[in-house]
Amino acid sequence: MMTSHTMQRPWVARAGVVVLLFFFWEVAARWWVDPMFVSPPSRVVASLPTLFDTRGLPAALRVTFWELAVAFALSVAIGLAIGLAVGLQPFARKSFMPIILLLYGTPQVTILPLFVLYFGIGPASKIAFGVSHGFFPIVMTVVAGVQNIKPILLTSARSMGARRGQILRYVIFPHMIPSFFAGMRLAMTGVLLGVLLAELYVSTAGIGHFTTLFTQNFDPTRLLGLISVLAAMAIALNEIVRRAELHFSRWHSE
Amino acid sequence: MTPSRDQREARLASRAVQVAFLIALLVLWYLATTRWRVSPLLLPNPVVVLRDFWNILTTGEFIGDLRVTLTELVIAFTIAAGSGLFVGYLVSRSQYCIQVFEPLFAGIYSVPIILFLPLYVLLFGLGPASKIALGATISFFPIALNTIAGFGYVERTLVIAARSMGASDLQLFRFVLLPAALPVILTGMRMGFTVALLSIIGSETIASLAGLGHRIVYLAEGMETAAMFAYIAFVVAIAAILNTLVSALEARGRRRR
User: Fold this and answer.
1) Residue B83: pLDDT over 80
2) Could you tell me if B145 and B201 lie in one domain?
3) In this structure, is residue A25 part of a structural domain?
4) Taking CB atoms and an 8 Å limit, are A200 and B118 in contact across chains?
5) Which domain holds residue A223?
6) Phi, then psi, of B184 in degrees rounded to 5
7) Mean pLDDT highest for which of A15-19, A153-157, B132-136, B222-226?
8) Quick check: A95 contacting B, CB < 8 Å?
9) Which residues in chain A are closer than 8 Å to B13, comparing Cβ atoms?
10) Which has the closest alpha carbon to B232: A114, A150, A101, A181?
């Protein structure tokens, strides 16, 4: 029987499950599986310092982080511009939203080789592919956010003599913020997927180069270490935008 | 009568804009390849692409790669659906388990699981097994999470009412829990199918020996851009057909309840 003490704290049991999984992984990697393929978590953690000593790897992590940041910033800028251009005009929205939805629904991994063909094998193709995954959610949420503004607010602002820029700044932007931040969270997920896919596909200086290297050298310790570092990076970035979303949607509801 | 006519005219106008936009895109593409001399290695002539597309369809050369990709997809989705439904149902049996496992699954799902691909390639090799493993992993989470949501949040009053009328466990499952949970579960299965398809084509693109994603990369590396465009169109069409099919099945499953 579980005590009522642990029943009140599900996170204790959750941590227990995670510890159990790691324990199972440790046991399996030490005694059951060929060390060419899997490395126990204790060894992965212990070898993290040597991972960062690998020549070129810290620079590769920096390159990947930089690609993610640039791709995210571009996604937000481009998504916002397209979203406002399409969303503010009902006619443009009715005409172009179906096309945007259609494009959003197509599997973009199929055109990954095209991005490499056009932008080369350097960071540019990763950034471009990240943007192609990241800007659609921003467009969607900006259009939805603009659409939900009560027409009376726009009419009254206009009747009080607000100029176009003022309406954008004081009416449209404040009302768009909650959905805009939800879009940023989705955009971050998309940018992470796009940039990492492109990195894994072909890479000269980024982390994709090292995942390939470690796989070909049968070096599961450093491969798992690198994957863990990247997963931590992804979790941190996701958490930042999620916190921002919580913060700003609370501001709006007050 | 007038507003509906206005609406119809507005809809017609936006349809016209859509068609004009697509035609303009095609014309620009055609002009770029013929008049402005964009290298055919970067942008092939649309007429050539269309001819290659027709060749692919008529010669049936796609069948080998299509079979590889579809086999991977079917196996991966079967594994994901089986384990996702099973684990999801077990977890949903108690509110405590839901509180323990749901955030765990949601947390893992928010990490880009494509990161596991190098590991799976190391473990299972370049063949279909690594693609199946990745597709099954990615597709497991939406199915498990939606199964938990479907079974876990059935209204208590329904369950209590059925119990007080003397329903057995099996009857409770068959007539109360399943009908209430089915729509959410079906949505999860559709989402799982879509991400499985995407991740399998993606992993074929990154590292593989056969399959539709592999074919596109093969043509890209050989600089056969026109054939690559044709294959991209083919894969997009296949994905659209599969997704439409699955959405139709989902809608049908919802209606039957």
Assistant:
1) yes
2) yes
3) no
4) yes
5) 48-253
6) -65, -40
7) B132-136
8) yes
9) 91, 95
10) A114
pLDDT of B155 reads: 79
Burial B118-150, CB ≥16 within 10 A → b, else e: bbbbbbbeeebebbbbbbbbbbbbbbbbbbbbb
Q: Please check whether residue A233 lies inside any domain of the structure.
A: yes
Q: How many domains does chain B have?
A: 2
Q: How far apart are CA B188 and CA B150, in angstroms?
A: 9
The domain of B5 spans 1-38
- Considering the domain architecture, whether residues B23 and B141 belong to the same structural domain is answered as no
Residues B143 and B98 in one domain: yes
Q: Do A117 and B42 touch (CB under 8 A)?
A: yes
Position B53 in a domain? no
Q: Which residue, among B14, B121, B195, B217, would best test binding to A if mutated, counting the most A CBs under 10 Å from its CB?
A: B14
The dihedral of CA B207, B213, B219, B223: what is its sign? negative
Flag whether the pTM goes above 0.95.
no
Contacts for B244 with CB less than 8 Å, ≥ 6 apart: none
H or E element at residue B168:
none
> Which among A44, A46, A52, A49 is positioned nearest to A221, based on CA atoms?
A44
Q: Distance (Å) from the C-alpha of residue B237 to the closest C-alpha of chain A?
A: 9
Q: Which residues of B touch A99 (CB under 8 A)?
A: 18, 21-22
* Span between the terminal Cα atoms of chain A, in Å: 44
Please say whether the beta carbons of A103 and A186 come within 8 A: no
Assess contact for B53 and B109: CB atoms under 8 A: no
- The domain tally of chain A equals 1
Tokens coding A241: 């935008």
Chain B hits for A235, CB-CB cut-off 8 Å, are 110-111
pLDDT value for A254: 41
Residue A9 located in a structural domain:
no
The interface predicted TM-score of the complex, written ipTM, equals 0.83
Cβ atoms of B121 and B207 within 8 Å: the answer is yes
Residue B85 and residue B140: Cα distance in Å, rounded? 9
Tokens of A111: 């055109």
Using a CB-CB cut-off of 8 Å, the residues of chain B touching A98 are 18
Which stretches of B207-224 are DSSP H helices?
212-221
Q: Does the residue B105 lie in any domain?
A: yes
Classify residue A168: in a domain, yes or no.
yes
